[in-house]
Structure formats: C-alpha cells, structure tokens
C-alpha cells in the first residue's frame, strides 16, 4: 500500500531566487554603464527662429542671460517688441509619457499673452505613431491668445464648446490625457519662468490667493501682542554685536546699557481683528480700499535706540534697511505713505512705515514670513568700508485666519485621479475578485465549467473595460520612460498621470512576487485577452495548431529577451530608437487606437492575431518585451504555487500536453517564466475525472489522499 | 539728468537707421543693384538694450565678417549694460548704489563716471550724476497722481552733489544717501563702444542706434547716412535732417518719460531744484564721440539754449539743434 506514490505538492517556497536577483543586478549594471547624457537644450538658434518668425518680423539679439529672443517689428524706422520667443526645454523640462520632455516654441507677448506656440520636438507615443502629430499641434495652437497670467487647465475634449471658461481652459484630447497635461504644464512652467525674468510677473505662488477672513473680534493691543499677532521685536545690543562678531566693529553709537538696540512693533493689517485694533474701523476700511484686492499691508513701528527707518527715509519708497522675506525670496514691499494719525494711540511712538505688498508679489500671509533689518557699521575714516549684517525675526499668524483659494484645484495629477475614480473603483473591485479565485485552488478553479466561464468573463472585462475603455493596457513604453527617468531626468511624475495603469502596475508587481508573470499575461493583458478570444475561431475555421519543434521553441522564446534588451539599452542611451523598437508591441494599435491607425501598423497587429490562430499566443511567448521583463522580474517569485504529483511527468504527461503555452517540461516541472496562470493544469489536477493518476487509482479501487510534501 | 527706467521710449531721431534697415530687409531692386555694384552686403541686427531697442547696421564685402562684427557690437552693449545699467540689479552701478562703494570698478563705469564728474565741474553742477534719489520720489508721486511735496523734494536735493563721489581707478565711494545714475551717458557711451568694436572688425560703413546714434562711412549703395530729428510734439514728422551724417548724435528731450501731461515735469532734473528745467523741449548735439554728445545734450536741457550754446562752444567740432517748448 504505497500512497506516497501519488502526492500533491502545495505551494512551496522556491529556490533560485538569488540567481534571478543576480541576473537583474547584472542587467541594471549593464544599463548604468551607458550613462551617456544627451544634451537637453534648445536647438533652434537664430536661424531656426527666423524660419518661425519671418519678415517683416525681426528676430532680435538673444538676451545675454537667458535663452530668450525678442521678436521685433519695424515700423517707420522704430522697432516694437512683439514677443519674447523661447524654447520650453530651456526653462521647464517635464518628462512626457515616454519619459522624454517635449520641446515647445513659445512666443510670449509683452502683456503676457501667448502670441505663438508650436511643437519643436516630442516623444509622446500616443501621437508619434498613433493619432499622428496633428492633434498635438492643434492642441498647442489653442494657447495662442490666452494669457499666461492665468492658470490654464486641460479640460475634456470639447470642453470649451461645452461651456468651460475659454480664457482658462483648453480642450483635451481623448486617449492622450497624460500627454496633454505634460504639454500644459510645460507651457505654463516655461512661460512663467520667462515672465518672471522679462515681464515682471509669475511669482512663486502664482494663482494662489490667500485672503484674510472677514471675522472680527474686538481684541486689545495687549491681547494681540500676547498672541503674537502684533509682534514686539526687541533686539539687545548683545544680539547685534553677536551678528558683527569677528569684524572687530563696535556700535559707533551705543545707547544706554539697559536700552534695547531696536524695538519694532510688527503687524499684518489685513486681518480685521489686527487691522481694526491698530487703525480703527474707518481707517482700516480706507486702507483696504486703497491698497486694493489681493494686496497686503504690514505695519512696522520703530521705537528703539536704532531705527531701520532713518530720518532721510522717503515716504513711498522701498526701505533699504527693512525687507520682508518668505520662502527664501525677498517680497517686494513699499511704503504706502499713510498718515500717522490713524495709528492706535497706545502704540509706541517713533518712526513708522506701512508697507504695501502688491498682488503680484506672490505673498502668502498664512505662511510664516520674516522681517529683517540691515544694520551697517563702518570701518575707516575717509573712505569708510561699510559692513552690513541682516538680522531677522519670524512672524506667523494662525492659518485659520485666512481663506486659501487655489484656482486650479490642486496639481493636475490629482485631477486625473479624481476624474478616473469610477474606473479605478471598478478595476480595483475586479482585482479584488480575481485574487481569491486564483488563490483558492479547491474552490472555483477546481470546477472546470464554472471556472471556464469565469475566465471568459474576466478576459472580456480585461479587453473591453481595462483595455478599450479605461485605456490601462500596460506597455513597455512605461518601462522605457522609467529607465529614462532613472538615468536622465530623475522625474517619475509622468507615472502619476495614468491612474488605472498605475493601479494595475502596482497589482502586477505584487502578484509578480507571489505568482510570477502569469497573473498579468494571462489575466490582465487586454491584447492577450484579444488573442485568446480570436483563438476560438481556429476550430470553426479548421485551423490546426502548428507544433513548433522543441528546439526552435526554446530558441524563439529567447527572442523576446533580445527585444527587451534592445529597447532598454536604447532608452538608457537616450536614443529615440527605444520608441521605434517599442512598436514591436501591437498594444497601441489594437487597444489604445482601436485599430484606427495607418495600415502597416494594422497589418502587423492583425498579423499577430492570425499567427495566434496557428501558434497560440505566439507574440506573447516569443516577442513581447513587456512579457520578457515580467518574466525576468518574475524570477523573484516566492512560491512554486502550481500543485504537482509525483506522477507528474513520469509517467503522466497530460498537463504537459494540454498546456497551450508549453510551460510544463516533460519532467513535469513548471517553467514559471513561461506560465500564463491559465489554471488549466490546476483544474486538471483537482479533477478526479481528468487527472490520470487519480483515474488510475480509482480504477484500482483506491483513493488518493493529497498530502503535502516538501518541494523538490 | 536722466533717470531710469525709460519704458516705451519714443524715437525722436529717426530716418537713417530706419531707412537703412527697411531697405536692407525689404531690398528694393535699385538699392540692391547699387550695393552689389560696390560689392557690399548689408546686415542689420536689433536687440533689447537699456530698456529700449538697439539696432546695428553694417555693410561690407564679407558677410561672415559682418555677422562677427554684429556679435562683437552686441557684446560691447552687454558689457556697458553690465557696468552701468540701473535696469539690472546686478550691474556694477546698481551694486555701487546699494553698498555706497565699489572696489575694482569696470573700465566702462570709471570712463563714464570720470566724464560725468568732469562735465559736472565744467557746468558747475548743472549736469550732475547724483540726481538718482529724485527718481523714486517723482515716480512714486506720479503713480499717486501727485507731485512730490516741497519738503520731501528739499530733503532729497540736499543729498545731491557730484562732490559727494570719490573716484579712483581702484575704488568708487560715495557719501551716505548718495545714488548715481549714468543714464544720461550710457547710450552715447555704448554707441562709442559699439563703433570701436565694429572698426576693430574692419567695418567701414556702419550705422549704430543704441538709443543715441553713431554713423561711419555710407550706406552700402554709397549714399550718405541721414539722421532725422523728429518734432518733439509730433514725433512722426521731422523737424530737421542732418545729412550727410557721420560721427555721433544724441538728443535729450521732455517727451520720453513725463510725470505730467503738460510735459513740465519729466525725467531730466535740474540738480539745483529737483524739478525739470522749463526752457527747452529737446536738444540734439552732434559730436565726435557719443559720450560727449549724450552728456552735452543733457547739460543743455538743464542750462537752457543760451548757456547751452556757450557750453558747447567750448567743445570744437560739436553742433547743436535746440527746439524750445511750444
């Protein structure tokens, strides 16, 4: 009675992970050797620009500090500035969907409107060979006439016709959401960078509007001071001497020893509780009216021995001993020439200034800022050498005193996540359903017919919803972008713009470690699903599968690794060839563009589907670079999860013969890198009517009790 | 005295540069025929400088040499800007104004400042580079639709005086509260520097417009350069034409940056009063250097026609064109 003869091996830890890891390390090492960084800079130059701005326009001499060319027009002997032209890549290098930053030619008129916008270079896969570049060109054309002073967002296709604000919205392109967002960000970031330099707007917090809430509480000065809303800043002579330590310079005009060096009272006046306590209700209202919306007022009263507001301080000027700083930048603040008599009588006497901070300064009063004073001491008599030291104090108000309005609701990648929340939910639910089905071998998988129906249903979902609807066909292009980001740009932000794909990528990376590549290739690849459905045509068409001789089969399987290596190498070298070779994938043709593409691509994709009728999933097994990468990474798999019996392979060859992927060796061993997790062999092994050892045992009147054994 | 900035500066000298550029670009057949008979090509390049548009036109037989000359011309302009443009916070002059002193000043700055201090001495302070503190006072008041209060004006005028500046080749130092502007000279000096750079490249025919003007040789077709002086009240019409024009010319006028609609208050200040001089509408001076032409034209605006003529008479080879206030 030897029951040991027939044993099931349950999922067991696998060996060989270390080798695979070494292999990967090797591959990464090889890629890193090719750290040839291509120069990413504008390429047009004067001659190139003159083609875009022909006479009567004149391309002026390039700015000597930044790569910006004035575009001039000559009229009656005088030149007029039409625009400032520049290439976006010199100012904003935002990696596109393929990992390479697009380059746009932008001409910004002196008033901040876009006079011209053209695409110089881009590597957006969806446009390159798919939709063609015309929709992209048309997309960029939309900016002409819009103003860079306002945040511009990409709406849905036809958003403008559907009533979106035409000054702040451009129509998006379906199937190219991620790419258009990158173009939009590039347009705005580059233009604001140039506007900051040439047009005097485009501060850090552009678009952000922080305003004091209208709430008023009648608090006295003492209480405001206690809360720090009115700040009293007393600097001792010792603190100032410390700032001049090492210079050997003493205070030329020391006050009494117990007298503070300076004594400043600082207050942000826009908050009604503070402003009205200091100015009174009427003067507060007058001040707010006078400085206008979006501007800020800060009061500084100096009552100490030394004053940052000297006697020769000119009303209405920018004080040179007082600066307001925020986030490392100096905020432009100018004396507002306001009457002293409006001031609360209980404030200290002394010189004072009411500083106005303009709307365009990008000042955020809800965030901490600092006031610094410049103290100067002199060395020498006739030509004294001046030595200045800046000493600063921080001022902060509780953020809940303010409303913060960000015109564009958050950075644009969060938009895409919000907009696709329902798709994400459906895909997440499907994945949550898939996991237990695949994990529990004795449940649905063991029931041949219901499981077959489940599989068909799921594949239909993968093709119809994941692929054609949600556009979440994973692709080698993402890997190319990642390699480019890793080596060249360091910016992985592009991954965030395609939430459904990112969700599936996350899921695939987890299942890769548990089950191997099969979870994606067999269940979540829309093109794989399409092939599987096409394969049903083989029988009615009386097409017989071609048996690939084992040696040729083994050789062909290696081709996909060569394709992968070529693509990754090209990506690592920064070569555009990576995009070309990536066209080995028919995914864009078949899934992204629904076969609406130029005929060579359609012919290729359809050809692969026809090939599939003769050699089942020939593309997946022999050519697919994404499959190859997953197969490589799948070597990190932790579980040998397909149950085996000792009879498997010797003598039983049923599963090997029935495996449509050739992933079971004659020995019965599973070739996991080739396994598509179709579960056929798992179903067989759990089916007493199919599994040969079980059938034989039953005929002999025995029952086989599956028992776990250690892995080989 | 001029102060920065000069946005939307209107052109008052026109004609030659414009005609040259227009013909070079548009290329009338007759012009091309004449030019090619002389074997000369023409190149014009414009660019932004000193808050306005500068344009250089050169003619010569060797086209690559023309491009190289234009490169050098603009490099000279950038060097002058880096030395003394108040539009650039990082220029040597801006740094000097902030710190009150400057070690190892660039040669462009010392050359202009030495000339400015000398002219200030010769005009007894009618020309004075230390009027800069008047600028924020007037522009602020103007932004509010007002004029500066007399008291504030007096306080600022007290800080004006060219003797408050000490210049040595190694160091410039100023008394506290002093600020300099060389806007009255910077474009004329730039014209000198550009012309020198073009000559060093062997250019014989050139027309330089840096905001002030310089010319050498003739048009590519052999016709002389002409310089039109526009009517300050109707800048589209010419009040006079200087032809043939070689050497340098500079114009100061009340039309460029005005603080009042009647043009009584503008960007040229009388250092003694802190207000604009009332006599003239515009003065054009031709001289053998741009620096001299530019300085004299500003000084004449402050001095008025009679004393201005006396001043210019002390500089041989200079001519003046005065246009009084209407």
UniProtKB/TrEMBL annotation, chain A:
Cellular location(s): Cell membrane
Superkingdom per UniProt: Bacteria
An annotated GO BP: positive regulation of DNA-templated transcription
UniProtKB keywords: Cell membrane, Membrane, Transmembrane, Transmembrane helix
Bilayer-spanning residue ranges: 421-439, 451-470, 502-525, 561-578, 598-616
SMART domains in the cross-refs: FMN_bind
InterPro entries linked to this entry: 4Fe4S_Fe-S-bd, FMN-bd, NosR, NosR_regulator
Positions of the FMN-binding domain: 96-194
Primary site of residence: membrane
Keyword Lipid metabolism applies: no
Entry GO terms, CC: plasma membrane
Molecular function GO terms recorded: DNA binding; FMN binding
Designated name of the protein: Regulator of nitric oxide reductase transcription
UniProt source species: Methylorubrum salsuginis
UniProtKB/TrEMBL annotation, chain B:
Cofactor binding note from Swiss-Prot or TrEMBL: Magnesium. Can also use manganese.
Catalytic activity, as annotated: L-threonyl-[protein] + FAD = FMN-L-threonyl-[protein] + AMP + H(+)
Top EC class, one word: transferase
Keywords tagged on the record: FAD, Flavoprotein, Lipoprotein, Magnesium, Metal-binding, Transferase
Superkingdom of origin: Bacteria
Residues that, per the record, bind Mg(2+): 184, 294, 298
Protein's name according to its UniProt entry: FAD:protein FMN transferase
């Amino acid at each position: 009675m030897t029951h040991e003869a027939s044993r099931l091996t349950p999922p067991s830890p696998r060996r060989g992970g270390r080798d695979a890891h070494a292999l990967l390390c090797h591959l990464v090492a090889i890629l890193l050797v090719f750290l040839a960084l291509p120069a990413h800079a504008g390429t047009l130059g004067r001659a190139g620009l003159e083609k875009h701005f022909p006479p009567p326009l004149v391309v002026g001499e390039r700015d000597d500090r930044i790569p910006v060319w004035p575009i001039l027009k000559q009229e009656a002997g005088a030149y007029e500035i039409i625009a400032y032209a520049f290439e976006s890549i010199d100012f904003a290098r935002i990696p596109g969907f393929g990992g390479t930053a697009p380059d746009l030619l932008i001409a910004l008129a002196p008033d901040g409107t876009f006079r011209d916008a053209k695409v110089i270079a881009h590597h957006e896969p969806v446009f390159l060979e798919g939709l063609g570049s015309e929709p992209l060109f048309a997309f960029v054309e939309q900016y002409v006439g819009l103003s860079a002073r306002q945040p511009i967002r990409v709406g849905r296709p036809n958003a403008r016709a559907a009533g979106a604000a035409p000054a702040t919205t451009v129509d998006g392109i379906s199937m190219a959401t991620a790419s258009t967002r990158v173009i939009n960000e590039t347009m705005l970031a580059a233009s604001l960078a140039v506007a900051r330099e040439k047009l005097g707007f485009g501060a850090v917090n552009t678009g952000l509007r922080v305003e004091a809430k209208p709430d008023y509480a009648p608090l006295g000065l003492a209480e405001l001071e206690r809360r720090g809303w009115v700040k009293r800043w007393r600097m001792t002579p010792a603190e100032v001497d410390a700032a001049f330590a090492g210079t050997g310079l003493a205070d030329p005009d020391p006050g009494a020893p117990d007298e503070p060096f300076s004594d400043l009272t600082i207050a942000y006046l826009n908050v009604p509780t503070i402003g009205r306590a200091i100015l009174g209700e009427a003067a507060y209202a007058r001040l707010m009216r006078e400085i206008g919306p979006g501007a800020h007022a800060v009061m500084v009263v100096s009552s100490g021995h030394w004053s940052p507001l000297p006697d020769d301080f000119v009303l209405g000027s920018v004080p040179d001993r007082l600066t307001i700083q925020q986030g490392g930048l100096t905020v432009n603040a100018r004396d507002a020439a306001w009457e002293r008599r409006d001031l609360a009588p209980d404030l200290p006497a002394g010189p004072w200034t009411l500083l106005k901070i303009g709307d365009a300064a990008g000042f955020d009063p809800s965030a901490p800022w600092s006031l610094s004073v410049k103290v100067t001491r002199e060395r020498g008599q006739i030509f004294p050498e001046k030595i200045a030291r800046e000493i600063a104090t921080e001022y902060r108000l509780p953020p809940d005193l303010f409303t913060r309005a960000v015109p564009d609701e958050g950075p644009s990648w969060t938009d895409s996540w919000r907009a696709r929340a329902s798709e994400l939910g459906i895909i997440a639910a499907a994945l949550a359903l898939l996991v237990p089905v695949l994990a529990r071998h004795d449940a649905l998988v063991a029931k041949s017919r219901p499981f077959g129906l489940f599989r068909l249903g799921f594949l239909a979902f993968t093709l119809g919803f994941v692929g054609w609807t949600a556009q979440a066909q994973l692709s080698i292009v993402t890997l190319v972008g990642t390699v480019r980001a890793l080596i060249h740009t360091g910016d992985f932000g592009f991954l965030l713009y395609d939430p459904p794909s990112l969700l599936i990528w996350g899921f695939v990376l987890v299942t890769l470690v548990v089950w191997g590549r099969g979870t994606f290739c067999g269940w979540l690849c829309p093109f794989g699903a399409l092939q599987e459905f096409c394969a049903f045509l083989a029988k009615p068409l009386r097409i017989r599968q071609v048996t690939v001789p084992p040696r040729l089969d083994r050789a062909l399987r290696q081709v996909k690794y060569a394709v992968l290596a070529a693509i990754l190498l090209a990506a690592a070298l920064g070569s555009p060839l990576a995009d070309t070779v990536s066209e080995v994938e028919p995914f864009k043709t078949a899934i992204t563009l629904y076969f609406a593409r130029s005929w060579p691509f359609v012919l290729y994709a359809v050809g692969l589907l026809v090939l599939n009728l003769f050699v089942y999933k020939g593309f997946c097994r022999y050519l697919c670079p994404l499959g190859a990468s997953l197969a490589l990474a799948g070597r990190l798999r932790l579980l040998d999860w397909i149950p085996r019996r000792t009879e498997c392979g010797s003598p039983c060859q049923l599963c090997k013969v029935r495996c449509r992927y050739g992933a079971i060796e004659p020995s019965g061993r599973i070739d996991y890198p080739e396994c598509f997790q179709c579960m056929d062999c798992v179903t067989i092994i759990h089916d007493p009517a199919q599994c040969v050892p079980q059938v034989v045992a039953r005929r002999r009147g025995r029952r086989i009790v599956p028992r776990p054994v250690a892995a080989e | 005295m001029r102060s920065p900035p000069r946005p939307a500066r209107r052109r008052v000298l026109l004609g030659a540069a414009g005609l040259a550029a227009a013909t070079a670009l548009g290329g009338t057949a007759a012009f091309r025929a004449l030019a090619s008979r002389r074997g000369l090509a023409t190149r014009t390049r414009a660019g932004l400088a000193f808050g306005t548009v500068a344009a250089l036109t050169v003619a010569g037989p060797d086209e690559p040499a023309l491009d190289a000359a234009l490169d050098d011309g603009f490099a000279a302009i950038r060097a002058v800007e880096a030395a003394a443009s108040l539009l650039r916070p990082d220029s040597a002059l801006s740094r000097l104004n902030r710190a009150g002193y400057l070690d190892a000043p660039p040669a462009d700055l010392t050359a202009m400042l030495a000339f400015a201090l000398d002219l200030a001495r010769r005009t007894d302070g009618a020309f004075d580079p230390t009027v800069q503190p008047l600028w924020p006072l007037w522009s602020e008041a103007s932004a509010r639709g007002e004029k500066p209060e007399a008291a504030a004006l007096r306080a600022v005028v007290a800080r004006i005086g060219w003797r408050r500046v000490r210049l040595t080749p190694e160091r410039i130092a100023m008394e506290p509260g002093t600020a300099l502007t060389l806007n009255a000279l910077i474009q004329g000096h730039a014209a000198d520097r550009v012309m020198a750079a073009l000559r060093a490249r062997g250019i014989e025919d050139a027309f330089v417009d840096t905001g002030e003007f310089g010319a050498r040789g003739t048009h590519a077709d052999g016709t002389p350069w002409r310089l039109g002086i526009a009517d300050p009240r109707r800048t589209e019409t010419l009040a006079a034409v200087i032809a043939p024009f070689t050497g340098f010319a500079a114009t100061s006028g009340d039309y460029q940056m005005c603080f009042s609609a009647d043009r009584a208050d503008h960007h040229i200040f009388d250092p003694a009063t802190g207000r604009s001089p009332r006599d003239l509408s515009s003065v054009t001076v031709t001289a053998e250097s741009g620096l001299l032409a530019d300085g004299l034209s500003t000084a004449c605006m402050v001095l008025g026609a009679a004393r201005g003529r006396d001043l210019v008479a002390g500089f041989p080879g200079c001519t003046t064109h005065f246009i009084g206030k209407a």
